UniProtKB/TrEMBL annotation, chain A:
GO molecular-function terms, A-Z: DNA binding; DNA-binding transcription factor activity
Every HTH gntR-type domain range: 22-92
UniProt keyword annotation of Cell inner membrane present: no
Name listed for the protein in its UniProt record: GntR family transcriptional regulator
Record organism: Agromyces luteolus
A Pfam family: GntR
Keywords carried by this UniProt record: DNA-binding, Transcription, Transcription regulation
SUPFAM superfamilies according to UniProt: GntR ligand-binding domain-like, Winged helix' DNA-binding domain
Coiled coil start-end: none
TrEMBL record, chain B:
Organism: Agromyces luteolus
Protein name per the record: Cache domain-containing protein
Any Pfam family hit: MCP-like_PDC_1
Length: 262, 263
């Protein structure tokens, strides 16, 4: 039954899924920052209330409040009082760029590759199993997700990737793969799919998506896995190039300091 | 000999239907109660209806040994005066996937504001679309229920109709793992490999432990043999058993839209 809400926008549903581990305000803040900077949450969109946010993410209301305050300071949300009040997303190109760049610099190449390997293990296996288990209806829903993809914007392309990957996981019929897919999308999606800023990569992800659909249609498990992991590999290589570019642009001392942060 | 085996499969198919029939009967009972309650209402309101729905489904969701894990009423768009889009759905708070035992029920959080980003027009989804088209009960799944419980689920829905108009539907969710548990004794000791599939040929459970639940059963001629099942479900009628080219019998399990494949 909950399909009703989940299928609406998987990438968005992921943003408001429970946080793993200790519910720290920094984690809530990171999750929402990623979602705003990557365009999963849209400019002007109203965030859930403090109480709802706390409930969805499985943290204390005071933690949710703390995170919202931090987002406000960063300039990522603004708060309106009154009857139609609440916290609203404010998207700013320059700010988003800066925030995601900070994120890339904070992780080492080893960490970035490791993260993409972990994700490829989950998504690749899901695609492999989905190729064996997809019914005609399942295929149809993949085709529809692709057809609805908005490739003109980074956020649109991100949402399409998120939806598609989650649907593939759902078609694998494995609750654990779905669970991991959701968790990894929430944790690493904004970082991993940063290449979708560029139109060329938005088009390339679409090509990969069509390859995955063709492989699933042909019940070709090996090709479905390969197309999926190739797509993720392409994304992480872009990310590492980006990291090199960013570090080259910084004075050496700062680059070193930020690069060694966890 | 073949005839005797086929008869055996038919008897088992009947027993499978008997396991699921109480859930169908339950949902049919809710349907009648909803129709009786809503028919005289000049302007039905969610605010009045929700407590009644909760009370109705809570009794079953709380019952030890129940097969269902979620249940409720979903309104046709525009039917309720105070809630154009409305899901009144409750979930049993236990979650076997995360090792949480049952402890009361909670309401499903659904987005009912059509202007919200995450709003989804539920009338396009299988569990609504099919009963709306056919006017009768439909079994959706098995599928991974990924927003609420992260579990592998089957959903049964049946329309609530007043003066020929569908005003909503009632339904229930069942965990496939629980279903497998109750079907296993029914399938035992048959002498043939028995596999329960849905109308798409997806395996619900099998006496062959290496047949995975959720996989498609790939047998020559099976998709064709199952096609009438999908049509028949619409009319609530039972289709005839079919023999596949390799000798397997495909026997519908009553009007559940599930079929038993005996090899």
């Amino acid at each position: 039954m909950p399909h009703a809400t989940a299928r609406a926008d998987a990438a968005r549903a992921v943003v408001f899924s429970p946080l793993e581990g200790a519910g720290r305000a920094e984690l809530v803040e990171q999750r929402l920052t990623d979602a705003i900077a990557s365009g999963v949450l849209r400019d002007g969109e109203r965030l859930p209330s403090e109480a709802d946010l706390a409930k969805f993410l499985g943290v204390a209301p005071v933690t949710a409040r703390e995170a919202l305050v931090a987002l406000r300071h960063k300039g990522l949300v603004r708060t309106r009082r009154g009857r139609d009040g609440g916290s609203f997303v404010t998207y700013d190109d320059d700010l988003s760029l800066r925030l995601t760049e900070e994120r890339v610099r904070a992780l080492s190449r080893i960490e970035l590759r490791d993260l993409s390997l972990h994700y490829a293990a989950i998504a690749g296996m899901a695609a492999e199993v989905a190729a064996d288990r997809a019914s005609d209806d399942d295929l149809q829903s993949l085709v529809e997700i692709d057809a609805r993809a908005d490739l003109a914007t980074p956020g649109g392309a991100r949402r399409a990737v998120g939806r598609f990957q989650l649907e593939v996981a759902a078609i694998s019929q494995s609750p654990r793969l779905v669970h991991e897919e959701l968790r990894l999308q929430a944790e690493t999606g904004a970082l991993l799919w940063m290449c979708l800023r560029e139109q060329e990569y938005r088009d390339r992800t679409r090509e990969h998506r069509l390859d995955v659909i063709a492989a699933i249609r042909a019940a070709d498990a090996a090709s479905a896995r390969r197309a999926t992991t190739t797509c993720i590999g392409t994304a992480v290589e872009w990310l590492i190039d980006e990291k090199v570019r960013l570090e080259a642009a910084l004075p050496p001392s700062i680059a070193h300091e930020e690069g060694s942060a966890p | 000999m073949t005839q005797a085996l086929a008869t055996g499969a038919a008897a088992i198919a009947r027993r499978i239907a008997d396991v699921i029939d109480p859930v169908f009967a339950l949902i049919d009972g809710w349907q009648q109660r909803m129709e009786a309650r809503l028919a005289p209402e000049p302007e039905p309101r969610a605010a009045d209806l929700d407590p009644a729905v909760a009370a109705t489904v809570a009794a079953e969701l709380d019952r030890p040994g129940t097969l269902i894990t979620g249940a409720g009423f979903v309104a046709a768009p525009g039917y309720l005066a105070d809630a154009p889009w409305h899901l009144a759905w409750w979930l049993s708070d236990g979650n076997p996937f995360r090792g949480v035992p049952a402890r009361g029920i909670r309401r499903l959080d659904a987005v009912s504001d059509p202007d919200a980003e995450s709003f989804r027009d539920y009338t396009t989804l299988e569990w609504w679309r099919v009963p709306e088209r056919t006017g009768s009960r439909h079994l959706t799944g098995p599928y991974v229920d990924y927003l609420c419980t992260d579990d592998y689920t089957v959903t049964v829905t049946t329309p609530v109709t007043i003066d020929g108009d569908m005003v909503g539907l009632v339904g229930a969710d069942m965990y496939v793992a629980r279903l497998e548990q109750v079907l296993e004794p029914v399938l035992r000791d048959a002498g043939r490999t028995l596999t329960v599939v849905n109308a798409s040929g997806r395996i619900v459970t099998s006496t062959d432990p290496h047949r995975a639940t959720g996989a498609l059963l790939r047998l020559d001629g099976l998709p064709d043999a199952l096609a009438p099942l999908r049509e028949a479900e619409a009319e609530g009628r039972v289709t005839a058993a079919v023999r596949l080219p390799d000798g397997a019998d495909v026997v519908p399990c009553g009007d559940t839209s599930l079929a038993l494949v005996a090899e």
